[in-house]
Amino acid sequence: MNRALAILLALALVLAAPLGASAGADSGKGGYSRLKDVASITGSRDNQLYGYGLVVGLKGTGDSLRNSPFTEQSMRSMLDNLGIATELGQMRSRNVAAVVVTANLPPFVRPGTRIDVTVSSLGDASSLLGGTLVLTPLKGADAEIYAAAQGQVVTSGYAIEGEAEEVSRGVPTAARIPNGAIVERAVAASFEGDNDLTVQLRNPDFTTAVRLTDSINGFARRTWSNAVAREVDARTISLSVPRGISPARFVAAIENIPVTVDQPARVVIDERTGTIVIGADVRISPVAISQGTLAVAVTELPQVVQPAPFSDGVTAVEPRSIVDVEQTDGPISIINGVSLSEIAAGLNRLGVKPTDTIAILQAIKSAGALQAELVLQ
């Protein structure tokens, strides 16, 4: 069975499928989500930290000091701070690597709290396996120190090389230190005394914002006898904390309110990996599709040519190539408003390659029949 015939059969199966099955599948697409799963309260956000440090204890896989002069400067500076005088001249150690340390500072943390950090090589080190990060201050965007990191790094990859072959897996020049940093300064973030709060949807949508506002107000009328929420735009909802309750208790009371999340019709295509993600609301208008296959076969049949008798010629080999081109065009098939997810499922059942499916989806979009946003990655 050629590819064109497989595509046409898949489309025929889709057209033969009852529309009631499609509607039933789409009716359960939404479900319920909690407020705290689809939105966040303004003021309770992470803050990013960064720092520069040294990883020591490597087994000859650190920076080459000739190519990474900043590593040598950092080593000399560290030893000077420890009261160890270093002689002039180039150092030859390969057991040290310069790294950049990053971390996310969660909201409401207090001094003494431990957070995870990520360590990434800055020089030409080949691996951070077995290394230990020396005490590194972590700064925020305001250049103030908020945490200090130190500890043994944990890598998820390795690299082993010999004179003629190298074997590697993962990225051995990036690592993590679980609970590797201690918070030294807290970021001011408190709900106390704040009677006006803002809810930010992670995926902006007017329908979801209105539904969430109605759900919050319905709960508030039953609990506090008045509405407390007002939709501002597709992402923002304004909240007023009722009297007699703290902002923290108010947030705890509403963050589990269920809401049905709506989403726009969207098709996401990753051409590099052949991945296709189709939303439940994606539909197509009546459209005719025809896709053919092109097969090219090249056969090499070299011939041996003998020289004429009593001549000075030599035996030679002459190249001979046979090229066959065969193109099979399938008939035009008309589809009428079926679910795009059913088309993709039918194509996959018959073994149609993702690249062919992607080509069909792009052609349908160009024809204006795809009633959805097409996102190419």
Q: How would you sum up this structure, described in words?
A:
The chain is of the alpha+beta class. It has three domains: about 5-30 and about 265-375, no CATH class; about 35-45 and about 190-260, Gyrase A, domain 2, CATH 3.30.1360; about 45-185, no CATH class. About 25% of the residues lie in helices and about 35% in strands. It has helices at about 5-15, 20-25, 35-40, 70-80, 205-225, 245-255, 340-350, 355-365; strands spanning about 35, 40, 45-55, 95-105, 115-120, 130-140, 145-150, 155, 160, 165-170, 175-185, 195-200, 230, 235-240, 260, 265-270, 275-280, 285, 285-290, 295-300, 305, 315-320, 320-330, 335, 370, 375. A six-stranded antiparallel barrel has the order 3-4-5-11-7-6. The two termini are about 30 Å apart. The model is unreliable at about 5-30 (pLDDT under 50).
Properties at a glance:
4-stranded antiparallel β-sheet, 377 residues, 26 strands, 34% strand, alpha+beta, flat, Gyrase A, domain 2
Q: What count of structural domains? A: 3
The largest β sheet comes out as: 6 strands, antiparallel, barrel
- How far apart are the first and last residues' alpha carbons, in Å? 31 Å
Average pLDDT reading:
78
Uncertain residue segments:
4-30
* Gross geometry: flat
Strand order of the largest sheet: 3-4-5-11-7-6
Helix content, binned percent: 10-25%
Judged by helices, strands and strand pairing, the structural class is alpha+beta
Radius of gyration: 32 Å
> How many β-strand runs?
26
Indicate the proportion of strand residues: 25-35%
Q: What is the helix tally?
A: 8
